[in-house]
Amino acid sequence: MSWLKSMPANPVVAVAGATGAVGREMLLTLGQRGFPAAQIKALASARSAGRKLPFLEGELVVEEMTPESFSGVDIALFSAGASISKQFREAVISAGAVMIDNSSAFRMDADVPLIVSEVNAHEAVNHSGVIANPNCSTIQMVVALKPLYDLAPIRRVVVSTYQAASGAGAAAMDELYNQTRQFLDGEPLTVDKFAHQIAFNCIPHIDVFLDDDSTKEEWKMVVETQKIMADDSIAVSATCVRVPVLRCHAESINVEFASPVSVAEAKEAWLAAAGVILMDDPENKLYPMPGLLSGTDDTYIGRVRKDHSVENGLNFWVVADQLRKGAALNAVQIAELLLP
After folding, report:
1. How far is CA 264 from CA 72, 257, 315, in A?
2. Which active-site residues does the annotation give?
3. How does pLDDT run across 298-334, given as a tens digit for each residue?
């Protein structure tokens, strides 16, 4: 396969879906982290061709994405939706590039690593031309779980998510803005991107409903966690809720261990973990809040306490920026793993 070629020190990078919320954040992240790209190509649909996007001190001109777009490309960061990823997979691989895909298209394929750099970076080399970026809500949860898993086996996780509008795209964020204005002005609310109004409301429904009345978003958190952690024995129960927050997801997580893990041990493990910030000082009302952490790269943990309802349980609260760690940053970190 052509993707077996060695990765150059200064790869050519394509960002597919560059005009979307995640695509724009990918460009911003590449620039901020000083990714050593020889060239960056901004790709999108024909209707976006010719648009100019800011990058570092200059601009990138958006090109229409075609199969020929990947000639000479080494790494292709995709955030254009599952159908587009499936459509262009062969073109990317045939060109000798590695696709890092942000959609759900390939996450559960046996030959596609599902990577969170703080958890299973070593698996990135085991690809066949495609590496998957996990679901945003899964990413921040496993970043928080891995240091605990290293202390004791995890038997069960119960998670309730409080997911921002950004998870549904730039148009969904605009809808939150517009509905908030309409609500305050006493106007009828325009509902389009969500099943119900999102302004001043919570919607316990993300993605489609499955046969057991769970949603696909909840199913993703179950199977993706088991794959990333390489442990099918971890039981996960998820309830995913959309809330009127712009771009940071929050999660209330309860973990049951096979053996005792104290609050002090958990905090010590998180303090030593990469990509984790412990923000936990109840006396001074210090804990992570999604409205105050937009634009940050880390996974924030607070409200840590023992769960007295089970023998070996902990409760805690996790916040991370959905567009950063939940999508763009994680994809760029995967790309960094491929550098020689």
Report:
1. 51, 15, 13
2. 136, 249
3. 999 999 999 999 999 999 999 999 999 999 999 999 9
Instruction: Express each pLDDT in 74-130 by its tens digit.
Output: 999 999 999 999 999 999 999 999 999 999 999 999 999 999 999 999 999 999 999
pLDDT at residue 2 in the model: 40
Return the amino acid letter for 238.
Answer: A
Res 98: pLDDT: 98
Asked if residue 40 lies in contact with residue 30, where contact means CB atoms within 8 angstroms, the answer is yes
pLDDT confidence of residue 1: 41
Residue among 324, 274, 270, 272 at smallest CA distance from 295: 324
Buried b (16+ CB within 10 A) or exposed e, 156-174: bbbbebbbbbbbbbbebbe
How confident is the model at residue 62, as a pLDDT? Answer: 98
2-133+327-338 fold: Rossmann fold (3.40.50)
Residues of the chain with pLDDT under 50: 1-3
Structure tokens of 316?
A: 């805690």
Q: Where in the chain is the domain with CATH 3.30.360.10?
A: 138-322
Helices within the chain (DSSP H only): 21-32, 82-94, 117-120, 136-149, 170-184, 216-229, 263-271, 329-338
Cα–Cα distance between 119 and 121 in angstroms, integer? Answer: 6
Tokens of 184: 């305050």
Q: What does the DSSP 8-state code read for residue 251?
A: E
- Quickly tell me which residue has 């634009």 as its tokens: 295
| Parts of the chain belonging to CATH 3.40.50.720 | 2-133+327-338
Q: Tell me the CA distances in angstroms from 137 to 9, 58, 301, one per residue in order.
A: 32, 33, 14
Matching residue, tokens 């984790």: 276
Asked if residues 27 and 15 have their Cβ atoms less than 8 Å apart, the reply is yes
Q: Looking at domain 138-322, which of 3.30.360.10, 3.40.50.2000, 3.40.605.10, 3.20.20.480 is its CATH number?
A: 3.30.360.10
One-letter amino acid for residue 105 of the chain: A
pLDDT at residue 4, rounded to an integer: 54
